[in-house]
Amino acid sequence: MKTNLRRTATLLSVAATMAAGSTALAPVSHADIVGPVTGSSDAVSFSRSVSGTDVVNGKISTGDVITVTNQLNRKLAWQVYYVKDLHPTCMEAIPETSTWKVSGKTYTNNPNVEGTKAPSEVTSGPGWVQIKPPAANSWAADPLIWTQDYLVKCSAGPLNTGGVTWDTTWAFEKGADNPNVGPTLQVGAGRPSITAAPADPTVGSDVKITVRHPEGTPGQPVTLTSDGKTLPGCGNLVLDGNRHVTCTWVPTKSGEYPLRAVIDGTPPATVTGRVHVADGPGTGSTPGLDSGSVYTGSLGI
Q: Which stretch is the leader sequence (predicted)?
């Protein structure tokens, strides 16, 4: 898993709220859990659940991160050779987010968490991630609990999150393949967002600011401000047929600019961000400020 799928703020640090006026959405202080779904073979029993701070009442949005937890409990003395999580390909496994606990020990491929580092024991491909001990070793699942994070890039609608399969020392085991047990989530089109391009604008250059609201309605008015003032070139905005709107702003001073977009509706959607504008070639320092100072005043409208 080489692709960097960790969520980072690329152009703006964005916070979206969906509430009347400017009231912020109440933060989710815990991971909502969907499931578990349960089942068994003649060698182990299993449960599979989905959790995450982005999961609210079984609902998520495209671009959210979820955690899938698989738990195996062996029957009698059967050992587990491997566990494989199966999922739709629109759920992309986030690198270095596997952690599993078995026989009183914690193993992980995440260099930033506690546990025995075992990156070679995690493999993946389109639609699957697997943990497997080295060589012909096996685990005593009393129980074995494994978590793996995914970035959801699925279309809006019901999402069966997949299932789990495994192999044990019981050569005649039946019931180890459970590819579509779920649980199922409801995926929304996505949350409001605001971006600016280029990522490193300078004084006197064009800055294209785009506001998106995937669940909005074409024609909804959008008010875009900084420090309470409308950005020049960004007045009288409405969502287009693709539920976004782009305007061009030419900053006249360097500094850090807070951005705030309010998308009309019931309730309105508010999304905020911040963009840093640097001095352009030959512009020098901002008048009235010491060289190297950051301008944080008005927009100079």
A: 1-26
Contact of 33 with 41, CB cutoff 8 Å? no
CA distances for 11 relative to 70, 201, 207, 254, angstroms: 35, 10, 12, 17
CA distance 68 to 150: 8
Residue in this structure with the two tokens 């909502």, named with its chain if needed: 32
Report which of 50, 46, 5 is spatially closest to residue 162, judged by C-alpha positions. 50
**Cis peptide leading into residue 198 (ω within 30°):** yes
- Report strand pairing: 237-238 vs 221-226: antiparallel
What is the CB neighbour count within 10 angstroms for residue 300? 12
Query: Alpha-carbon distance 86 to 92, whole Å?
Result: 11
Q: What is the mean pLDDT of residues 227-237?
A: 94
**Of residues 162, 131, 160, 148, the one with CA closest to residue 52:** 148
What pLDDT digit, counting tens, does each position of 162-176 carry? 999 999 999 999 999
Paired residues of 123 in beta bridges: 130
- CA 49, distance to chain mean position in Å, is 18
Question: Would you state the pLDDT for residue 31?
Answer: 65
So what's the pLDDT on residue 190?
78
Cα 73 off chain centre by: 30
Q: Decide: 64 and 48 in contact? Cβ < 8 Å.
A: no
Q: What is the dihedral of CA 174, 179, 185, 188, to 10 degrees?
A: 180
Per cent of the chain over pLDDT 90 is 68
Displacement of CA 156 from its chain's centroid (Å): 15
The encoded tokens of residue 160 equal 């069966």
Residue 223 structure tokens: 């008010």
What's the chain's length in residues? Answer: 301
